[in-house]
Design goal:
Length: 120
């Protein structure tokens, strides 16, 4: 069983691994002006997920924590969009489990935000 104190570090590690996987994936996209835009946006939004989550864990207040979690969720949603666009415009590109992982991250961050809205 996972200790409650270990959960933040596990999610930080998970978002770090995801960002690293996105960087590797972005290198596999064929070179084109269009893919350069997708690549840049994808790496930016994916790396921002973990950065904002890490900031949330070091926040100075509950409001600051909630805001950073909400931004992490928004960045995860944006990353999902860029992955879908990369797949749609590059038929031979395999997003592998990246879409599944980012969808899970969106769900996790939404759950955290929803829990805070309920006062827990």
């Amino acid at each position: 069983m996972i200790n409650v104190q270990e959960r933040p570090q596990l999610l930080e590690d998970r978002t770090l691994n995801f960002a690293s996987d996105i960087i590797v994936f972005s290198k596999s996209l064929p070179r084109s002006l269009e893919n350069d835009v997708i690549r840049k946006q994808l790496v930016r939004s994916a790396s921002s997920i973990g950065a904002n989550y890490t900031e949330a864990n070091n926040s100075s207040s509950k409001l600051d924590f909630k805001n950073k979690i909400y931004i992490a969720k928004k960045e995860a949603s944006e990353t999902r969009y860029w992955l879908k666009l990369a797949k749609k415009t590059n038929e031979h590109v395999d997003t592998g489990g990246l879409l599944d992982e980012v969808s899970q991250l969106v769900f996790i961050f939404q759950k955290i935000v929803s829990t805070m809205k309920n006062g827990n």
